[in-house]
Design brief:
The chain has 2 domains: 203 residues, Vaccinia Virus protein VP39 (Rossmann fold, 3-Layer(aba) Sandwich), CATH 3.40.50; 63 residues, Helicase, Ruva Protein, domain 3 (Orthogonal Bundle), CATH 1.10.8. Helix 9 packs across helix 10 and helix 9 packs across helix 12. The mean pLDDT is 93. The protein is α/β, with parallel strands linked by helices. It is elongated and about 65 Å long.
Length: 281
């Protein structure tokens, strides 16, 4: 039975339809599933945290390759399916909760026998950014995060800071990780088919952030405020947000040999670091 037929069989057996509130689209491409697991470089030394396993399409192959797979699923309708499929596996654990509320540090600590911890997931589009930011900001002991997201979002996440497609999250991603886009996925690879294509990205977690800043909280606050009014110049965005006065900001940009009319997306990660370090707050 191919994956598309298997998915239809499971949905019919359990009288399941995709829940739009949870952003569910069920993956039916065996090639994509195999590529996700391959680029995650899963092995028996790994603890895998899978977010939103749904019908267990990805889970099935992860359980074969990994030391242990912990699935975190919010939709109660999926619990019976996942338990029926995988409860006989001794390396399977299922948690019914919102990933944003789960204490991942304790979860990882309680499974410290595994050498590496990796996150693998087909993320709901509507909550992609909060999930990724939680994984990074909590400074978990992760080796990598391999996730499928909306293609447009993926391109922004892996963009080089200072490029045209840069957003505030681009700087966070590049501060904590070495990101790469590993696979583009057609919308026809799902049922129901979403309106847009997807892409798989891999975030290789750095042991230390890419740059050093004096005040990490201020650094991210500056970036967030800079991009809240992206159409404005950097100086106007930051002065309007109360970060600093225009004169101070102009002086710092002069030190960086940058035009006072520069926009936030034109700054590199290092330049934002320098700017936050020099602010008089």
């Amino acid at each position: 039975m191919n994956l598309a037929n298997e998915t239809h069989f499971i949905m019919n057996k359990y009288n399941i339809t995709a829940n739009k509130n949870f952003g569910q689209n069920f993956l039916i491409s065996e090639n994509v599933v195999e590529n996700i697991v391959m680029c995650s470089e899963v092995n028996k030394n790994d603890l895998i945290i899978e977010i939103g396993p749904g019908l267990g399409t990805l889970t099935s192959l992860l359980l074969e390759k990994a030391g242990k797979v912990i699935c975190i699923e919010l939709d109660k309708k999926m619990l019976e399916i996942l338990n029926d499929r995988f409860s006989l596996y001794n390396n399977f654990e299922l948690i019914n909760d919102d990933i944003l509320k789960v204490d991942l540090k304790s979860l990882i600590l309680n499974n410290s026998q595994f050498k590496n911890v990796k996150v693998v997931a087909n993320l709901p589009y509507y909550i992609t950014t909060p999930i990724i930011m939680k994984l990074l900001e909590n400074k978990l002991d992760l080796e990598s995060i391999t996730v499928m997201v909306q293609k447009e979002v993926a391109e922004r996440l892996v963009e080089t800071p200072g490029s045209k497609n840069t957003g505030a999250i681009t700087y966070s991603i590049n501060y904590y990780t070495n990101p790469e886009l590993v696979l583009e996925v057609s919308k026809d690879s799902f049922i129901p088919s979403p309106k847009v294509d997807s892409a798989v990205i891999k975030l290789n977690i750095l042991k230390q952030p890419k740059i050093r800043v004096k005040n990490e909280e201020l650094f991210f606050k500056v970036i967030k405020c800079a991009f809240m009014q992206k159409r404005k110049t950097l100086i106007n965005s930051l002065s309007n947000s109360g970060i600093s006065n225009k004169e101070n900001l102009e002086n710092i940009l002069n030190e960086l040999e940058l035009d006072s009319r520069i926009r936030p997306e034109q700054l590199t990660l290092d330049q934002f670091g320098y700017l936050s370090d020099k602010l008089k707050v």
